[in-house]
Write a structure and sequence with these properties.
It is built from ten helices and seven strands.
């Protein structure tokens, strides 16, 4: 059995949507520095990253010309023995399970360096060098719900103090690599997966912050054994506006999912 198919009781008792949280919200809570990264990187995940770094480097790593200092400072915060790739952010990413995005803490808060090997509806080549406000444009209501609050948060965040939030998606399988949004998955809904993302942000220098994303999967069908999680997911979905439904995968996917959840 793959790790993606192992039912995690802890996840379902405390799912990322809680008792029906709005999906697009800031939701950041402070954590201890030693909990910045949840675990060591597994051999399976490290191989996934290395394979993409070796075969699709320009799709998964991007940097701006002025990001060298930010990457070097980060390498002092996160030690790595890797040095085979030209960008330090790529080498650092092989030491932790998370994808890594370096953001300016001030000014336009541009994304200036990133290694993203498990994207969900996210094409790094179209985001690098852009401000957070520009990055949030695909969901027109997102800047109001998250964009402005996260800008203020990064400006005022304490130094070297990580904060955590949980995000989630629904996919037709447990593949990690989705550059573009998908519509309704072709797989039967009984085979769909919840993709959860443990997201942290830490201002590791007055000028730079690190946004890190650790992706995990759970089979959606497991929700039938956790009624509170099922009810919470229905409530969260029913709180979507039309733009959020479009970004989520469209009305067809949204309606099929709600119908399935109500049927359990």
């Amino acid at each position: 059995m793959s790790l993606s198919n192992e039912i995690n009781n802890k996840f379902w008792l405390d799912p990322p949507w809680g008792d029906g949280h709005k999906k697009y919200r800031l939701g950041l809570a402070p954590i201890d520095k030693e909990d910045w990264f949840e675990s060591d990187i597994s051999s399976e995940l490290k191989e996934h990253k290395r394979r993409l770094l070796e075969t699709r480097y320009e799709d998964v790593v991007a940097t701006t010309d002025d990001s060298v200092e930010a990457q070097n400072i980060l390498s002092e915060k996160i030690s790595t023995s890797e040095n085979e790739f030209p960008d330090e952010i790529a080498n650092i990413s092989l030491s932790v399970p998370d994808d890594l995005c370096v953001i300016e803490s001030n000014g336009d808060q541009r994304l200036i360096a990133a290694s993203v090997c498990s994207p969900s509806y996210w094409d790094l080549t179209k985001k690098i060098g852009k401000s957070l406000r520009h990055i949030h444009k695909p969901v027109k209501t997102l800047n109001k719900k998250i964009g402005s609050p996260i800008e203020k948060f990064i400006n005022n965040a304490p130094l070297d103090k990580p904060f955590k939030r949980e995000n989630w998606f629904i996919h037709g399988n447990d593949k990690r690599f989705y550059l573009e949004p998908e519509g309704r998955p072709k797989e039967p809904i009984e085979q769909w997966y919840v993709r959860s993302e443990r997201e942290t942000i830490c201002k590791y220098n007055d000028a730079y912050s690190l946004f890190a994303i650790n992706v995990r999967f759970q089979p959606l069908s497991a929700i039938k054994g956790y009624d509170e999680a099922r009810i919470g997911l229905i409530k969260s979905l029913e709180g979507f506006d039309s733009k959020e439904i479009d970004y989520f995968g469209g009305v067809d996917k949204y309606d099929v999912l709600l119908k399935y959840l109500h049927s359990l």
